[in-house]
Target: Temperature-sensitive replication protein
Amino acid sequence: MSSYNELKWRDEDYEKYSTDKLYFIWNVLKQPFPPQYREMVGELAFRKEKKQREENLKRIKEIISSRDDKSEIREAWKKLHPNKEIKKDGKYINELAKLMPNMAEQLGAFIELENIEIKYFDENGEPLYELADFKDIFPENFAQSGFRKYGLTKEQFLKIYPNIDKENFERLLSQVNLEQAEDSSTIIPYYPAIQIKQILVDQLNN
Model:
């Protein structure tokens, strides 16, 4: 089963994307807007973006429904977890966003970096996750974790991937606009962090 936690895509290219990537995009778009977003962009812009998102969700669902391999992700997941007994108490991505407001906009990045597995799929093919897998970013744990609102600490990245090539890691970091937290921690923004992970971890495992 492919991992398509890519944080950028082009709306006009939906037809070109594989079905499992469309599932991921659909899942991300279903996340609620942050509570403060309406105030930040203004009512008119907010309504326009909300309408566009709803149209995109409808379009993606129509494309998925027309695909012969629309059950591909679910079937791939079943092969990875044959005959697994599961108590169906998982959480949808939008439920997780409400429970963890500090990371509501970056759950896709967290799922990718921590390699969070889908717990099971509902009857519509929408994935649900195990709440305990997100314990590091629970509100009560967030301040002590290595995750921040827009990136993770260099220390946290190395904690997740202790066996990566450190020389290549430093070389790739030198090409990134890093940030410094108030506690002097080096912060790697999520998008380049995922790119580094894909280069140093995913490609080596494929």
About this structure: Strands lie at 118-121, 127-129, 151-153, 179-180, 186-189. The chain has a mean pLDDT of 81. The chain has two domains: 1-142, 146-206. The first helix runs from residue 19 to 29.
